Amino acid sequence: MDKNKYNIIIIGGGAAGLTAGIYGTRAGLKTLLLEKGLIGGLATTTDLIENYPGFPDGVAGKDLMETMKAQAERFGTEIVQAEVKG
After folding, report:
1. Does pLDDT of 86 surpass 90?
2. CA distances, 77 to each of 33, 54, 64, 74 (Å)
3. What angle do CA 76, 21, 27 make, to 5 degrees?
4. Reported confidence tier of residue 54, pLDDT bands at 50, 70, 90
5. CATH code that applies to domain 8-81
6. Strand order across the beta sheet in which 31-35 lies
């Protein structure tokens, strides 16, 4: 983990956290995302997500979350496995 300051620190790496990371880094903000469990959250364990726009036949949760993680990292979101306490 970089010891520099961040503009945004996101706690939780589910779909919403990954989306926040994408938007933060695209806006030019230094963004750190912290997740203690699975990157992608519970959606990662879902066999088929049928209500996500753009996938009329559904998409495997693991595939969707891996794609979102890759996109967040491509834009510059730093993703760290860590538990936040306090």
Report:
1. no
2. 7, 24, 17, 7
3. 70
4. very high
5. 3.50.50.60
6. 8-11, 31-35, 78-81
Q: Confirm if 32 and 8 have CB atoms less than 8 A apart.
A: yes
pLDDT of residue 41: 95
**Chain position carrying tokens 């030019």:** 28
Where are the domains positioned within the chain?
8-81
pLDDT at 4: 77
Q: Which residue in the block uniquely carries the two structure tokens 């979102």?
A: 68
Prediction pTM value: 0.90
Q: Is 46 exposed, middle or buried (0-12, 13-18, 19+ CB in 10 A)?
A: middle
